[in-house]
Design goal:
Length: 830
């Protein structure tokens, strides 16, 4: 015991103290070399070594208390622990261990050793027991203690105990069985036979089950064995068997079976020694199981830490899933692992890379309902199947998908909304315990957090990429002044940023009050989607009317979408429409469509809104630039036209003045006035042209103004009535100038010559348009033309001027005398 204590705690020394008087205790057994001599005779007050019953099984000594400091000085130690051994209220002795590693696990092992020592002491106190067992039992127990202290694994301990039990009982074969997680027994060690026949091993297992259920100690079989199981063992030439239950605190850990070729080969002493051995072996097995369990926990924690480090270093979902599947398969020692992500409608999709030991050709998803995974998503509770054939779960969709006989399924969930399943399976029946559920749940939690972090990182990366590309697009749009180029850039950018191959830009036709597609991708111009819509009509019209981006998860069924039938034919599923608004005015709408079930998110809506705002400014700038170009072209044309008109007008005036020089003049004043009248007639045309911005001139207005100006230019008093009638004939600028000069000349001649001095003089001017021809008629009620005047017209300067101007217009001139003089000029309008 002292040697085992030294080994368990890596201590420098240990002493066994036993009662030696009312107030004293003496050291009986020493170890570690810190006390000289083989049988030390140290004594100390028993009050400390006995310990208090309420202080627990282990007393840690401190130098802060004088009595404990005195004890430490006596044994020459810096620190020490005391483990009293009791039988009921009776103190049997105390083990002191000095300068060791006193962890909780190690002190628990010391307590177990003391319990074993107490059992040994109780047996030694029985009268005559030491003589019957003798030195062999002492050596046997010592070897057992050494085996317990030196065993590094449970298998090593079981093998040593099995060999010791066979030697102690003199049996031919000794078997050790231990209980598994599922409750059944499994053969863990054997001595005396290289292997057992399968039938013999099966019957031995039945005997071990019978032994385990009888916790009273031992069962011996001879000729009256338990039915067919013993008959099979007798046929294997075993004459007797000894069964010992391995139990502690009323819990069955397993069983020991010893078989002998001879009948009744186990003496009472050997049987009692084996009972003590079984008790000590049970304690040792439990302690080592606890130790290995703690080691497994540490390894599991290390594996979880390793997994956490590995999956936190990547944002690749496939790599995360592969790492989790591999770690879960290793931790639970299972051949099959699968990870599923639960969609919004409950369908579970296999996560890429999230499988281990599976050949999942074509198998990627689970149905929405009707399987263990659906039950888990609904209840949130782990689901397990120990044996699908016995439990009637072989047809379950998840069991069949995995191809497993046993299955454990736990949820993966994260606060940000990720939901999924982590499933492990085995080809053989297997009972998954609470530890398995807890361990797999830890892996599921790690996986859920990693998947959520990866998804958020990908969303963030896409968002940053989108913002970067949006900035680049904004720069391009800001530098573009061509409307077609701007619309192409907007469509290409929106399609790439939001992964929408079908898209269009609609601009508002303000005269028609309709939205019209100006650029599109993914459908043909003859498509129904090209039809015009009004603001407020359809998804795009509502977006234009409300000024907000609108989305639809299924436009083939959305009542807001106008072309639902066409969307079904094209396979379009989701849509988003964002208004193009600039300076408080809605210019149009940008529409994006997807053929997949992936909906447009809030981040997509914000991104498209930002792009639409930039695009609207660019479109507005392009429109303004186009209008500015058109205005510049118009002004250039106008300046050219003005220069042309001025040059032609000046040439015409110069020609008229030259002709005026050839006329016999009564006075210079009269000539100047006639020249001024002609110039003013031309000015009337220019004034009207300026008012109409180079459009056609209303010749009726020209005639009224020319008549007024001509009357004002005549010095002699003229009371004749001048009246302008007929249609409003519109003529281009050059022809209007010539016609104005014709009117000025004819009106001047009529007022000066035909109507001079007449109180009832009347002059009528009329304009008519028919068949592309214009007729100008000037009629007075004067005396008419003298006889033969028409033949002499070529000699008259006034009519020469009129004749020349009419010919320049491409027309003809007619003179007639009927109740006065009538002059008609006909010429083409264009």
């Amino acid at each position: 015991m002292v040697a085992a204590a030294l080994g368990v705690c890596d201590a420098a020394g240990a002493l066994w103290w036993q009662p030696a008087g009312r107030d004293l205790a003496a050291a009986g057994v020493a170890g570690g070399g810190q006390v000289p001599g083989e049988t030390p005779t140290l004594r100390f007050r028993a009050s400390l070594l006995r310990g208090r019953r309420d202080a627990g099984p282990v007393v840690h000594l401190s130098r802060e208390r004088s009595e404990e400091a005195a004890f430490l000085d006596l044994v020459g130690a810096r620190q020490a622990v005391l483990i009293p051994a009791r039988e009921g209220r009776r103190w049997l002795g105390t083990l002191s261990v000095h300068d060791g590693n006193f962890t909780q696990q190690r002190t628990d092992l010391l307590v177990a050793l003391i319990k074993q020592a107490a059992g040994v002491l109780r047996s030694l106190e029985v009268a005559g027991e030491a003589h019957r067992i003798g030195e062999e039992q002492s050596r046997f127990m010592g070897e057992l203690g050494v085996a317990v202290a030196s065993a590094l694994s449970l298998d090593e301990l079981l093998t040593t105990c099995c060999q010791l039990a066979r030697r102690a009982t003199g049996a031919d074969v000794c078997l050790f069985f231990l209980a598994e997680n599922g409750g059944g027994l499994r053969l863990r060690a054997q001595a005396g036979a290289a292997s057992l026949d399968a039938q013999v091993a099966s019957e031995a297992l039945q005997l071990a089950e019978l032994t385990r259920t009888d916790l009273r100690g031992e069962t011996v079989w001879g000729d009256g064995g338990p039915g067919p199981a013993w008959v099979a063992l007798q046929e294997a030439r075993f004459g007797s068997a000894l069964g010992l239950a391995l139990s502690i605190r009323g819990e069955a850990l397993g069983a020991i079976l010893a078989f002998s070729r001879q009948a009744q080969a186990f003496s009472p002493g050997a049987r009692r020694m084996m009972q003590a051995f079984a008790s000590q072996a049970a304690v040792a097995i439990e302690n080592l199981q606890l130790f290995e369990s703690m080691q497994r926990r540490l390894l599991e924690m290390a594996d979880l830490t390793w997994l956490s480090t590995r999956i936190s270093a990547t944002r690749d979902i496939a790599r995360i899933a592969a790492a989790v599947a591999e770690a879960a398969a290793k931790a639970l020692d299972v051949p099959l692992v699968a990870l599923f992500e639960a969609g919004p409608e409950g369908r579970c999709e296999l996560i890429p890379g999230g499988q281990h030991g599976l050949a999942a050709e074509g198998k990627t998803s689970l149905p929405v309902a009707g399987h263990l995974g659906a039950e888990l998503l609904q209840t949130g509770l782990p689901q397990l199947v120990a044996d699908s054939d016995r439990e009637g779960r072989a047809e379950d969709a998840l069991v069949a998908w995995l191809g497993a006989r046993a299955l454990l399924c736990v949820p993966m969930s994260a606060q940000q909304g990720f939901r999924g399943l982590l499933v492990v399976g085995d080809h053989e029946p297997r009972a998954f315990g609470s530890h398995d559920i807890g361990l797999l749940s830890n892996y599921a939690n790690q996986a859920a957090l990693a998947f959520q972090a990866a998804a958020l990182a990908q969303v963030q990366a896409r968002h940053l990429e989108g913002l970067t590309r949006l900035y680049d697009v904004s720069q391009v749009l800001a530098s573009s002044l061509d409307l077609t180029e701007t619309l192409d850039t907007v469509l290409n950018s929106a399609s790439e940023l939001l992964d929408a191959p079908v898209c269009s830009v609609m601009l508002l036709d303000r005269q028609a009050g309709e939205l019209v597609i100006k650029a599109a991708r993914g459908f043909w111009p003859g498509d129904a989607l090209y039809e015009r819509i009004k603001p407020g009509e359809g998804l795009a019209g509502r977006a234009a009317q409300t000024g907000m981006a609108l989305t639809s998860s299924d436009i083939s069924r959305d009542g807001r979408f106008k072309f639902r039938e066409r969307a079904r034919e094209e396979g379009l599923r989701t849509a988003i429409a964002a208004p193009l608004a600039a300076r408080g005015r809605t210019l149009g709408v940008i529409n994006l469509y997807r053929k997949s079930d992936r909906e447009f998110t809030e981040a997509d809506r914000r991104l498209l809104t930002s792009l639409a705002n930039s695009a609207a400014v660019a479109i507005e700038n392009a429109n303004l630039y186009r209008e500015a170009q058109e205005r510049a072209d118009f002004l250039g044309a106008m300046m050219s036209e003005i220069n042309h008109r001025i040059r032609n007008t000046l040439q015409a005036i110069a020609g008229l003045l030259r002709m005026e020089l050839d006329r016999p003049q009564k006075s210079a004043e009269a000539a100047i006035k006639r020249g001024m009248a002609r110039i003013q007639s031309v000015a009337v045309v220019h004034e009207l042209l300026r008012a109409r911005e180079l459009q056609f001139v209303d010749m009726k207005q020209v005639a009224e103004r020319v008549a007024q100006l001509t009357r004002q230019s005549i010095t002699d008093e003229c009371s004749a009535e001048v009246k302008v009638t007929g249609a409003r004939v519109m003529l281009p600028s050059q022809k209007a100038t010539n016609v104005a000069l014709v009117l000025a000349e004819l009106i001047d001649n009529a007022l000066r010559h035909a109507l001079a001095g007449r109180e009832d003089g009347r002059l009528s001017i009329s304009l008519q348009e028919a068949g592309g021809q214009v007729m100008l008629q000037v009629k007075d009620n004067g005396p008419g033309l003298p006889e033969g005047y028409e033949q002499e017209a070529k000699a008259g300067l006034g009519l020469k001027i009129v004749q020349g101007l009419v010919e320049e217009l491409g027309g003809t001139l007619e003179l007639e005398t009927r109740g006065g003089t009538i002059v008609r000029a006909r010429f083409p309008k264009v």
